[in-house]
Amino acid sequence: MLHLFLELRAHLRVNIMSYDYSGYGASTGKPSEFNTYYDIEAVYDCLKKNYGIRQEDLILYGQSVGSGPTLHLAARLQRLRGVVLHSAILSGIRVLYPVKVTFWFDIFKNIDKIRQVHCPVFVIHGTADDIVDWSHGKRLWELSKEKYEPLWIKGGGHCNLETYPEYIKHLRKFISAMEKLPASKQSKQSNAQTSTITEVKHNKCLRFGKR
Predict the structure, then answer these.
(1) Cα angle vertex 184, ends 179, 187, to 5°?
(2) What is the average pLDDT value for the chain, to the nearest integer?
């Protein structure tokens, strides 16, 4: 992910705060669903107290399982500038089984939390994602209160969407649109609610199998 953040910073000219989940990378502790929630809350607290960043100035970005802590925080902050969901999941169990109801023991219940997000939501998903099916992204977009025009990358997989030219183009467009929104009115506006499928060449990526 570090290379992605460096690329985004160079192309989009934005300030980026990234973090490792507990038990991963340079972080201590044990990996768990709730620890990822504590982690992102700690990052936000750091931005607010140490850097004076307001939630109105933040766009949260969550990729794959990272969409869990991202939506956890987004559901709690009512004045965020925006949210980006990249190859996001509906919930942990739904990655493995197409269940119709949410069980109490499920994890990362994004399907429920997305309904509590009040800022514009930009969904990016590959139509050929064989880890987290495209239907996850489509359903999250449908459930969003403030829908921003999604990006469905035709032929895109789970971990290669940033290699497609349209990825940066549409992400830049979203950030530009969010910058133009008055902080007090951001949740009242969003772009067209139509789907976009981008025809681009397929690139292969490292495959992570389901257990």
Answers:
(1) 75
(2) 86
Whole-angstrom distance, CA of residue 176 vs CA of residue 90 = 27
Does the pLDDT value for residue 75 go beyond 50? Answer: yes
pTM of the predicted protein model: 0.85
DSSP string, 126-139: ETT-SSS-HHHHHH
Q: Please, what's the b/e burial string for 134-171 (b: 16 or more CB within 10 A of its CB; e: otherwise)?
A: bebbbbbbebbebbbbbbbbbbbbbbbbbbbebbbebb
- Which residues is 60 bridged to in the sheet? 83
Query: Rounded distance, CA 24 to CA 22, Å?
Result: 6
**Amino acid letter, 168:** I
Catalytic residues: 64, 129, 158
How many separate helices (H) and strands (E) can be counted in the chain? 7, 6
Judging by beta carbons within 10 Å of its beta carbon (0-12, 13-18, 19+), is residue 186 exposed, middle or buried? buried
Measured in residues, the chain has a length of: 211
- From CA 79, how far away is CA 185, in angstroms rounded? 9
Kindly state the DSSP code that residue 176 receives in the 8-state scheme: H
The CATH number of domain 1-180 is 3.40.630.30: no
Q: How many CB atoms lie within 10 A of CB 130?
A: 13
